[in-house]
Amino acid sequence: MSKNVQSAQRDQTQNGQQEQILTVKNLRKTFGGITAVADVSFHVEKGSITGLIGPNGAGKSTTFDLITGVQRPDGGAVEFNDTEITGYRSDQVANQGLVRTFQIARELSEMTVLENLMLAPQNQVGEAIWRAVLPRARTQVVEQEKALRKQAWEMLELFEIEHVAHESAGNLSGGQRKLLEMARVLMTDPEMVLLDEPLAGVNPTLEEKLIDRLHTLKEQGYTFLFVEHDMDVIMNNCDTVIVMHQGSVLTEGQPDTVKNNDKVLDAYLGEEVTI
Amino acid sequence: MSTGSIQARAEGWLGNNDVRLLIALALAIGGLYALFSVVLGFQLNGTVNTLRRVAFLSAIYAMLALALNLQWGYAGLFNLGAAGFMAIGVYTMGILTAPVTASPPGFGLPLPVAILGAILVTGLIGGLAALPAIRLRADYLAIVTVAFSEIVRLTLRAPEFANTRIAGVAFGTGGATGLSLPSNPIRILFYTDPAATAPAPNALGAAIFSAVEPLGIEETLVIGWAYVVVLCLCLGLLYWLMVRIGKSPFGRVLKSIREDQQVTQALGKDTRLFKIKTFALGCALMGLIAILWRLSGGYASPRMFKPIQTFYIFIALFIGGTGSPTGSIVGGALFASLLFEGPSFIRRVVAESLQLSNAPDTLVAAIVELGSGDVIPLLAYSVQDVSISALRLMLLGIVLVYLMQRHPDGLLGHRKAIASSVDLSQRETREDDYE
Amino acid sequence: MAARDYYSRGQNIVYNRPVLVVFAVIGVFLVFDIFRQLGTGTITATDLVSYLWNGLVLGMSLGLAGVGLSMTYSILNFANFAHGDLITSGAFAGWATAFLIAGLGDFSVEALVLIGGPIAVGSNELGINVVNTPLALLAGLLVAAVLTAALSLLLDRIVFKPMRSADGVTLMIASVGVALFLRNFLTFSFLTDSRGLTGGNVPQFTLGGVTFGGHQITLVLVAALLMLATHVLLQYTKIGTAMRAMAANKDLAKVTGIPTERVVKLTWGIGGGLTGCAGFLIALQQGTLTVTMGWDLLLLVFAAVILGGVGSIYGAMVGGVILGIASRLALVWIPASFLLAAAFVLMIVMLLVRPSGLFSGRTTA
Ligand SMILES: Nc1ncnc2c1ncn2[C@@H]1O[C@H](COP(=O)(O)OP(=O)(O)OP(=O)(O)O)[C@@H](O)[C@H]1O
Ligand SMILES: [Mg+2]
Question: What is the pTM of this model?
Answer without folding.
Answer: 0.90
